[in-house]
Structures are given as structure tokens and as C-alpha cells.
Design a protein that fits this description.
The termini are far apart. Helix content is about 55%, strand content about 0%. The strands form 2 sheets. Strands 1-2 form a two-stranded antiparallel sheet. A two-stranded antiparallel sheet has the order 3-4. The longest helix has 26 residues. The chain is mostly helical.
Length: about 350
């Protein structure tokens, strides 16, 4: 009989749990905490010589690898989001990365060297994308097999760490744990090269955040900001928390004459990272359950970031709070949450 037996590794639907406030939802990083690294094929990257000396090292090493993945999950998620915009021509392409984009991540981190060429990075991408576990996950999620999601990306980063360490330090590779190799890649490539560049881009928004007049303006216009996001929903459910996917928001940003006019997708991506994180230091980024979904607070920061980007790149002469007010006014009107009163009617009322 079909469907009588679950295939090995298939995730089981957890039972509902209820508390005083209703359904108890598990932490959003449960998928990472419960990730089976053996099932993802990472046990094969633990050196055989180490296992001969101490078989128990496998569990300890993989546990350390998971700890590192959890520690850097927030920064990896934002790098993933930002890199997914590279070369993209449509908002629908955000949230997944291709082989050239993955190679770009490693080039930016300067993980690619004469001993560890880009062809090796491409090979890792292909091997991870076509692994049995990845393909099973893609089928279940109905996602593309030629692109990475965040989990694929993080697994591939571990593979890069293993192979790069072997290429750079061949005489030491067999004596060191996988967790050390991953830590080496994260600290000597990402922390030294990728993170500072990303922080430099995010620090440019600081004057907008610390502008008292701009913050007061946002506070006064908060209701209109919320109503604007409401209009962007595909399906409005009054009782649920309002969140709108950035890929869908791109349609509205084009309608408001912003995207592909005042900024492109790559510039929007860094603004999107700014909107999601309250710190500019990637080392302290938090992991988000849905990095492409924006609530009221994040949408407000997104609008602030867009206004500051346009203000700086267009070299606007007026004070920023004045430009911000004009831009918000234009968006509110185009979203039909702020209706212009006809001059004749206004005069009559006076």
C-alpha cells in the first residue's frame, strides 16, 4: 500500500502544543538546532586519521561545527540575501543563489587562492546541489535544483572550509578537526574581508538613523507607513501580523517609481539588510525566521534606508528630513493612503 511507510530521513510533522497564549510555536532556529549534519554528509569530512585515534571525536567535532553555524547564522543569512541580488534582473530572484553568485561570495571573502581556484568552488556548488539529501529536500520544497537556499549555502560553506584547508595546508589537514577548518574560513576570510565591507555599506545609513528630525517625522507618519504596507498585502487577514515579502514589494517599489529608477536591485538588497538588522556589525547579526518578510518596523526602516540612499546618491541640497517628508508623501499618495484634497474644495472649506 502506498504512503504506509515514511522514507528514511523524512521530517515528521510535530504535534501541536498549546499554552495560555494559544499555540506554542517552536523557536525559529529549530531547523538549525535540529539539523542532522551526518545526514547532510558532513561526517565524511571528519578526518579518518582522527577517528582511528578517537572514534568519539566525530560527534564532538560535528557539534562544534553546528555551534559555529549557529553563531554565524545571522551574518551568513544576510550575506546570502545580499548576494542573491548580484546579477539579478527581477525581485523574484532574491532569496536564492546560483553558482556564479556562490563563487562571488568566495571571491569577496578571498577564499579563492592559486591553490584553491574558482573551479574548485564551482565543483563544491555542483556536488552539494546534486547530493541525495539536497535533491530530496528540493523535491519536498518544490524548489529549483540549480540554486541554493540558505541551508544549502551553509552546508557548502563547510565543504569549502574543508577543501580549502586541505589545499592551503596539506600537511596539517589530516590532523585537524572540521570545526577548526570552518573556524579558519570564517575568521580569516569572512571576518577579515566580507564582514568589514558589508559593515562599511551599512554604516552609511547611520546619519539617517541618528537624525532627530527624521525620526520625529517617521513617528508622526507611522500610521500612514502601516497603511501603506497594508495595501501591499496579497491577501489581507485582519487578525494576523502584517508581513509582506520583499519580492512582492518590488512590484510596488516599481509602481512608486523607485526601483530601477532611483536604485537597482543590488542597492535595494543592502537597504533590505539595513532594514532587517538593528546593528551594522555582521558579527552580531541575528537570524530571522523569514528574512524576506517585512513587518511594520522593518518596512519603516526600509523606507528610511531608501530615502537616505536617494538623498545621498542624488546629492539633494535640502535637509534630509525635508527630502524624507517629500518622498514619503509621494509614496503615500501612490499607495492611495494619503488623498490629495482638491484646491477648490479646500478653499471652500476655508
Amino acid at each position: 500500500m502506498p504512503y504506509r511507510v515514511r522514507w528514511e530521513g523524512r521530517p515528521r510533522t510535530p504535534p501541536f502544543k498549546w499554552g495560555d497564549q494559544g499555540e506554542v510555536v517552536p523557536p525559529h532556529d529549530t531547523w538549525l538546532r535540529e539539523l542532522d549534519l551526518k545526514q547532510e554528509g558532513l561526517a565524511a569530512l571528519v578526518e579518518a586519521d582522527l577517528l582511528k585515534t578517537d572514534p568519539s571525536i566525530l560527534e564532538r567535532d560535528l557539534d562544534k561545527v553546528k555551534e559555529l553555524l549557529m553563531q554565524y547564522a545571522g551574518s551568513m543569512q544576510m550575506i546570502f540575501l545580499y548576494q542573491s541580488s548580484e546579477g539579478a534582473s527581477s525581485g523574484d530572484q532574491l532569496g536564492q543563489i546560483t553558482l556564479p553568485q556562490f563563487r562571488g561570495v568566495m571571491q569577496a571573502a578571498r577564499a579563492i587562492t592559486p591553490r584553491f581556484p574558482p573551479e574548485k568552488v564551482d565543483e563544491i556548488f555542483t556536488n552539494v546541489a546534486t547530493s541525495e539529501q539536497t535533491l530530496a529536500r528540493k523535491v519536498e520544497n518544490k524548489s529549483g535544483v540549480s540554486t541554493f537556499d540558505l541551508l544549502d549555502f551553509m552546508i557548502a560553506v563547510v565543504h569549502v572550509a574543508y577543501h580549502r584547508y586541505a589545499a592551503e595546508l596539506p600537511t596539517q589537514a589530516s590532523y585537524n578537526q572540521l570545526s577548526l577548518k570552518l573556524m579558519t574560513l570564517l575568521r580569516e576570510s569572512f571576518s577579515i574581508h566580507t564582514f568589514p565591507e558589508l559593515q562599511k555599506k551599512l554604516d552609511k545609513f547611520s546619519p539617517a538613523v541618528t537624525n532627530p528630525a527624521a525620526q520625529l517625522l517617521l513617528k508622526r507618519g507611522r500610521k500612514l507607513v502601516e497603511q501603506t504596507l497594508d495595501t501591499c498585502q496579497l491577501k489581507r487577514v485582519k487578525s494576523s501580523t502584517v508581513k509582506v515579502d520583499l519580492r512582492w514589494l518590488c512590484n510596488h517599489l516599481q509602481r512608486w517609481a523607485l526601483l530601477n529608477r532611483d536604485f537597482n536591485l543590488q542597492e535595494l538588497a543592502i537597504i533590505a539588510v539595513f532594514a532587517k538588522q538593528t546593528t551594522t556589525d555582521p558579527e552580531h547579526f541575528v537570524l530571522h525566521p523569514q528574512p524576506l518578510e517585512y513587518n511594520y518596523n522593518e518596512f519603516e526602516r526600509l523606507l528610511l534606508g531608501m530615502a537616505w540612499h536617494v538623498y545621498v546618491t542624488k546629492k539633494k541640497p535640502e535637509p534630509f528630513e525635508e527630502f524624507l517628508g517629500e518622498m514619503l508623501d509621494s509614496i503615500f499618495k501612490k499607495a492611495n493612503v494619503l488623498v490629495e484634497v482638491a484646491k477648490d474644495k479646500a478653499d471652500a472649506d476655508d
